[in-house]
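Marked as duplicate of an earlier ticket. Keeping the data here for the record.
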Amino acid sequence: QNLVLHLLRKRVGENEQSLVTRLEDEAKELNHLISDILEFSRLENARFDKGAKRRDLEVLLAPQVERCKIDLKQTLSFRSEATCAKAFCEETLIIRCLNNLVGNAIKYSGQASQIEVSLANHVKDGQQLISMSVSDNGPGIPENKLVDIFDPFTRLDASRDKKLGGYGLGLAIVKESMRIMGGSVTAKNREQGGLSVTLVFKQ
């Protein structure tokens, strides 16, 4: 596909170059969609390895957040209040979750927004848990859509999503990843403005 477009670009005139560029963009978007569909399908049928190791989320996530800062217009920071950052998780899945959540915040919170990735310990029903939150100070989303955003192909604003790219699979992949790892994901609008998505892991 890329080779065909490359050959086409060499054969068409200057006036048609913009059309080839559009075809290239559409092809990239289609490839990304196919990749996400395959990943979502794989996760739906996957089972978490019960013998998985406890991994240090701070060690995994801090360097990845630094990589996400490259060529970034928004402010992105990492903060950990966890006294113990180890949790039962799968490295590839947690990195994918982080990238999807940060990517969403970058797209929808505005160019001047502040995005924060944070870790914290807490206890629920006597069980030790650790949460990872990705928060921004953007416009947030309607309260009645906070649950729906984790459903496959959910697009809150079709025109906006079409302009920015995406077909509503990023958060669905996050939800399936957390299900596999025995955790959970929730979203809420922040009182001071913006959206916060929180992943909760067992320790």
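See parent ticket for discussion. Residues 132 and 199 are 5 Å apart (CA to CA).
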